[in-house]
Amino acid sequence: MNSWLKDWISPRFLRRNGVLGMNQRNIGYIAKYNDRSRFPLVDNKLLTKRVVERAQIAAPKLIAVVSVQHEIEEITDILHNLDQFVIKPAHGSGGKGILVIVARDGDRFVKSSGASISLDELKRHLSNTLSGLHSLGGRPDQAFVETLVRVEDLFTEYSHEGVPDIRIIVFQGYPVMGMLRLATRASDGKANLHQGAVGVGLDLATGQAISAVQHDLPVTHHPDTGADFTNLHIGNWLQLLTLAARCFEVTRLGYLGCDIVIDQERGPLILELNARPGLSVQIANGAGLLPRLRAIEALEDVPVDVADRVEYAMNHFGGRVEAAQQTLWEEQEG
User: What is the C-alpha separation between 200 and 175, in angstroms, rounded?
Assistant: First the structure.
C-alpha cells in the first residue's frame, strides 16, 4: 500500500494533523451550526438557484422549470431554439440526472461526450426526472433548465470533457479550505471525486495548486491530458472567496460547501451549495480542517463585513501561515 495513503488511515496521524472525521463533522459542526430548517435551501437545487438570484449572487441563469408531465411538451418549444443548455433534477445528487447539451446536429442534441440524442429521448429524460429516477429516495421531482457554463480557457488542458468546479468550505462565513475538481475519462466527464475525478488542493491565500489526488492517491499530472498541476493557479481568487463567503448570509448555514464554476464571459458563478460537504477536501490539500475550524470558533465576534472575513481567511489559512499553525496544533495535541 502507498505509504502516503497509510498515513491517512492511521488514527495517530489523523489526530496529530487535525483531520476532521465524519462523526465529528456530523455532530460537532453540521448538527451544531446548521439549523435543519435551512436544509431545503440547499437540498433543492432549484430553490438554491432562486435564493442566490434574489440575493444577486452570480449563478448560471435559469431558463425554464418543468414540474409536471404535461409541461414537457411546452418546454420543448423553448429547447428547439437553444443550441446549448443544461437540464438538472432539483433533488439530484452526485451528478445523477444532469444532461449537458453543448451543440445541435440538425434535429439532434449533442451531449458533452460527443454522443447525440433525439428530441424524444430528451423528453424521456425529463419524464424520468419528474418520476424521481434521479432524485434522492426516488421521490417525485422537478427538472430545470439553465445556461451552459463556457469553461474558462485556463482549464482546457486540465479537464476531460466536463466543467471543472471549485469546492470552498465556508465556516461561520469564513472560507477555510478549497479544492478544484477536475473531470477525467474515468469519471465520465463529471467532476465527482468518487467516480475518479481529480481533486486539487488550493492555497487559500493565493489560489495556487499545492497538491492533487485521484482515488485518494497523489498525482502530479492530469491522467488524460498530461497537464502538470504545479503550473495551475486560479485567477479571480479573491472574487471566488468573496462569492463563497456571501453564501453564509444567504443560507445562514454555519458549515457549508460552495461549488463554484468560472465562466468565460461572466466569471465565477455559484453552481451548488451543500449543507453536508464531504471531507475529501482534506486529502486534496494534505491538511486537516480542525485547526482552521477551531481558530474560527475561538474568535469572539464574526465580522459582519464579508471582505473582513475573506481577508482573515487569506491571512490565516494560506501557505506559510498554515504551516506554522499546523506545527502549533501538533505541539498542542502532544
Answer: 16
